[in-house]
């Protein structure tokens, strides 16, 4: 098991892994001891044969309301603009309560089978969609209580904050649902004033913030630095997460340093969405992409900025693939972002760090007294896991093995037909 994910005192090898015995009693972890110690008489022993043991995983940036619409709303050219247009058309025509509920549930059953226990989803919240998706989310959260803990973020383009009473109305809806306020930020002329409105509104309602930020390779896109400065100016006391932040990879070293210094001072957490951004960014028909479209996790981590990776979109116009499998996300992130040589404690990006950023530090760790919600993998070290992330795994919830059967895509066929 990764030494960085437990408080137990264990010897650690060169990969940061510890060999241990985990005793489970009454559905909880009763003890963690060094491997090789004698087992008390009468206890049932299961030999994992040196397989990796991980805590249940955390997916802190998803879009459960968009998921699985690819068959009826494909992205014609794979671009960000194409994704926006296809999603807007589909949402307007089809996103009723039954449609959203069934696709959300399908995604959650997939994530549960793969071993995820905590998910934050962004919900498209431009009226009238907010009146459909937020009640469905709240109902779904109750239905999934005890299996996957769910959080939600209101999602809308930043310019919407100037539309009458929209922002205050959405904030009240989010507050009532126990959610988080968010927005998509880009370089509009009135961005400074728009962010002031968002920060004031979040403070007034006691809400945390989670932004989509600079999802472009345009080096002029610099809303991350402005968000960080606003957090400092407003002395904002809530949590702030910024996702994507792709344009940093196209900016000068000096601009990067200035921005990351502000982000560190403001205490902002960053989540990178490597699979989706690799899919969308630097895409031109007939030309091989040159740039990866991901943000600067190594430089952020070196400054003490908390960093995570997450699934983002799943089989929708923004990302045609994916299955809400955080082991796939971790493996792909390692390859795309070079989170290796050494792997070190990068496993925290899908476990303890996102749990902390979501205010749920009970997740993403293996410690005595916690529920025995763990993954037992057949792979024995980081190299085996990263080479075969889809390999055999056992998911234990409360110490009991769950049925890992994945839902069949055919279940959604009746939602995919033409209008």
TrEMBL record:
CDD domains given in the database record: Bact_CD
GO biological process: one example: cytosine catabolic process
EC number: 3.5.4.1
Keyword field: Hydrolase, Metal-binding
Pfam families: Amidohydro_3
Gene Ontology MF terms in the entry: cytosine deaminase activity; isoguanine deaminase activity; metal ion binding
InterPro entries: Amidohydro_3, Metal-dep_hydrolase_composite, Metal_Hydrolase, Metallo-hydrolase_Enzymes
Name of this chain's protein: Cytosine deaminase
Organism: Stappia sediminis
Lineage: Bacteria, Pseudomonadati, Pseudomonadota, Alphaproteobacteria, Hyphomicrobiales
């Amino acid at each position: 098991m990764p030494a960085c994910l437990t408080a137990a005192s264990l010897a650690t090898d060169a990969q940061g892994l510890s060999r241990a015995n985990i005793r489970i009693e009454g559905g909880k972890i009763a003890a963690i001891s060094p491997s090789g110690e004698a087992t008390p008489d009468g206890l049932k022993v299961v030999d994992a044969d040196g397989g990796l043991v991980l805590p249940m995983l955390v997916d802190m940036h998803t879009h459960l309301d968009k998921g699985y619409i690819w068959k009826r709303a494909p992205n014609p050219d794979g671009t960000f603009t194409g994704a926006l247009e296809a999603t807007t058309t589909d949402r307007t025509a089809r996103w009723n309560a039954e449609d959203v509920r069934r696709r959300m549930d399908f995604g959650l059953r997939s994530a549960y089978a793969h071993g995820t226990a905590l998910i934050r989803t962004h919900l498209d919240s431009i009226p009238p969609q907010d009146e459909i998706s937020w009640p469905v989310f709240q109902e779904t959260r109750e239905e999934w209580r005890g299996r996957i803990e769910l959080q939600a973020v209101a999602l809308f383009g930043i310019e919407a904050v100037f539309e009458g009473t929209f922002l205050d109305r959405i904030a009240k809806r989010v507050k009532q649902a126990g959610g988080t306020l968010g927005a998509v930020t880009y370089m509009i002329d009135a961005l400074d004033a728009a962010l002031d409105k968002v920060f004031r509104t979040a403070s007034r309602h006691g809400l945390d913030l989670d932004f989509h930020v600079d999802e472009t390779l345009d080096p002029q896109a610099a809303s991350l630095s402005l968000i960080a400065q606003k957090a400092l100016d407003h002395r904002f006391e809530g949590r702030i997460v910024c996702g994507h932040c792709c344009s940093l990879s196209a900016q000068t070293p000096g601009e990067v340093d200035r921005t990351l210094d502000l982000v560190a001072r403001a205490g902002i957490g960053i989540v990178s969405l490597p699979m989706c951004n690799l899919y969308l960014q630097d895409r031109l028909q007939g030309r091989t992409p040159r740039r990866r479209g991901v943000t600067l996790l190594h430089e952020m981590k070196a400054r003490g900025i908390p960093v995570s990776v997450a699934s983002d979109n799943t089989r929708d116009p923004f990302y045609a693939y994916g299955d809400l499998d955080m082991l796939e996300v971790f493996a792909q992130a390692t390859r795309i972002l070079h989170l290796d040589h050494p792997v070190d404690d990068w496993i925290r990006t899908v476990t303890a760090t996102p749990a902390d950023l979501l205010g749920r530090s009970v997740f993403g760790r293996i410690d005595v007294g916690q529920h025995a919600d763990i993954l037992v993998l057949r792979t024995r070290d980081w190299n085996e896991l990263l080479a075969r992330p889809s390999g055999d795994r056992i998911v234990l919830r409360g110490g009991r093995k769950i049925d890992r059967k994945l839902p069949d895509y055919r279940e959604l066929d009746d939602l995919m037909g033409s209008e």
